[in-house]
Design brief:
With about 110 residues, this protein is mainly β. It is about 0% helix and about 40% strand.
Length: about 110
């Protein structure tokens, strides 16, 4: 297994999300992986939502809400999803990032088998 940094995903919109694989040089229609981590950027001032579609309803399509980092003590909240028992059970391309504040986002890391 190897970790792959998918980079910072920082959508300019608060209504239209970007895929977790947005920074790939050739964005894949699928990106099978064993686990994913979504970590708040240190400069975020609002929550970032991990959603299941490009234009989500925040009452129905939110998989996780990652709050803004804390300053005392310094924290970088994250959401991690993984399944070590199954071969590549997740597709990173099906996870979407939507910030509450335009231009904020998360750092995405995938573990591939």
């Amino acid at each position: 297994m190897a970790q792959h940094a998918l980079g910072n995903v920082t959508p300019a919109s608060t209504t239209t999300a970007l895929r977790a694989t947005n920074n790939q040089t050739t964005p894949a229609s699928n990106y099978p992986c064993q686990a994913l981590q979504f970590q708040a950027l240190g400069t975020n001032t609002g929550s970032v939502y991990i959603v299941d579609r490009q234009t989500p309803d925040l009452t129905q399509n939110v998989l996780a809400e990652i709050p803004a980092p804390g300053s005392s003590p310094v924290t970088r909240p994250a959401w991690v999803i993984g399944n070590p028992a199954a071969p590549a059970p997740f597709d990173a391309a099906t996870f979407w990032i939507l910030p509450a504040v335009s231009g904020e986002g998360v750092r995405v890391t995938a573990v591939k088998t």
